[in-house]
Amino acid sequence: MIAVISPKGGAGKTTVASNLAVGLAGAAPHGTVLLDLDLQFGDIASALTISPEHWVTDAVQGPAGRDTMVLKSFLSAHSSGLYALCAPESPAMADQVTGDQVAHLVDQLAGLYRFVVIDTSPGLSEHTLAALDKATDLVMVSSMDVPGVRGMRKELDVLRELDMAATKRHLVLNAADPRDGLSLRDVETTLGLAVDVVVPASRTVRLSVNQGAPLLSTNGRDPASKALRKLVGRFAPTPTPTRKRGARHRIGTP
Ligand SMILES: Nc1ncnc2c1ncn2[C@@H]1O[C@H](COP(=O)(O)OP(=O)(O)OP(=O)(O)O)[C@@H](O)[C@H]1O
Ligand SMILES: [Mg+2]
């Protein structure tokens, strides 16, 4: 159960969560689900170009809470083999979902799928806190600017107070551009933590978001794709390609 969080809006949570989920679906086809817990303004449907027929609100009310077959029928399939449970279309509907319902939903999904990736709203809402309580791993996304890094430091303090010592942390510095005046060392010193993955600021990322096609849907070799693949590898190490039987003997043969 991997929760993707950030204290600030626009840091890249949805971009990171959707790419992580698509990458994990490559390792565990039909074994990965992406849950959009940004219940007011979630945009996983747009990030994946899917048109859901059911939303988180359906999944936490009525029979889906008791029957996992019904819950499964509320998920939307993506071409990568990923399943998604999207945020409701109207922001007003977010109020219908309680923290306890989120906790139960995450438990249900964890019983059905190998990877549950959870996108969240900025900060620590009731829904995010319920997800954090269940998460085995936190992907903490920070922008590379002073307000973003300071916000992350405060969020880390809160997480310490919440006693989440058993939850593994993965720090992602997103949209990093060395010309912006902050160095990696500045960030690590302020946070007192090592940065695990640096995703560069990239036009390719912006294009992929606008096109609704996560970068990791394709086998791109650009630096942002490589960084996002490195994040995926922290959860599902890529198997070393095995040499085809007899391949050695074919080298140099016409
Ligand atoms: N590495 C990057 N390089 C360039 N642009 C990026 C990068 N990562 C994200 N963006 C852009 O930043 C914008 C915000 O990204 P995203 O929606 O993933 O952030 P968010 O944290 O989910 O925002 P919100 O808090 O509103 O949910 C998007 O338009 C996206 O294209
Ligand atoms: Mg988002």
What does this molecule look like?
Helix content is 40%, strand content 15%. It has one domain (2-234): 3-Layer(aba) Sandwich (Rossmann fold), CATH 3.40.50.300. The chain has an eight-stranded mixed sheet, with helices on both faces. Mean pLDDT is 92; it is low at 240-254. It contains eleven helices and eight strands. The chain is globular and about 50 Å long. By secondary structure, it is of the alpha/beta class. Helix 1 packs across helix 10 and helix 5 packs parallel to helix 6. Bound molecules: adenosine-5'-triphosphate and magnesium ion. The site of magnesium ion (MG) has 4 residues, from helix 1.
Topology readout:
Blueprint: E1 2-5, H1 13-27, E2 32-36, H2 44-48, H3 56-60, H4 68-73, E3 76-77, E4 83-85, H5 99-112, E5 115-119, H6 126-134, E6 137-143, H7 146-161, E7 168-176, H8 184-191, E8 197-200, H9 203-211, H10 223-233, H11 247-250
The protein binds adenosine-5'-triphosphate (ATP) and magnesium ion (MG).
Magnesium ion binds at residues 13-14, 38, 43.
What's the total count of β strands?
8
Rg, please?
Answer: 19 Å
Ligands in the model, by name, code or SMILES, are:
adenosine-5'-triphosphate, magnesium ion
Approximate helicity band: 40-55%
Largest sheet: 8 strands, mixed
Mean pLDDT: 92
Oligomer: single chain
With strands numbered from the N-terminus, the spatial order across the biggest sheet is 3-4-2-5-1-6-7-8
* CATH level-4 homologous superfamily: P-loop containing nucleotide triphosphate hydrolases
**CATH class, please?**
Alpha Beta
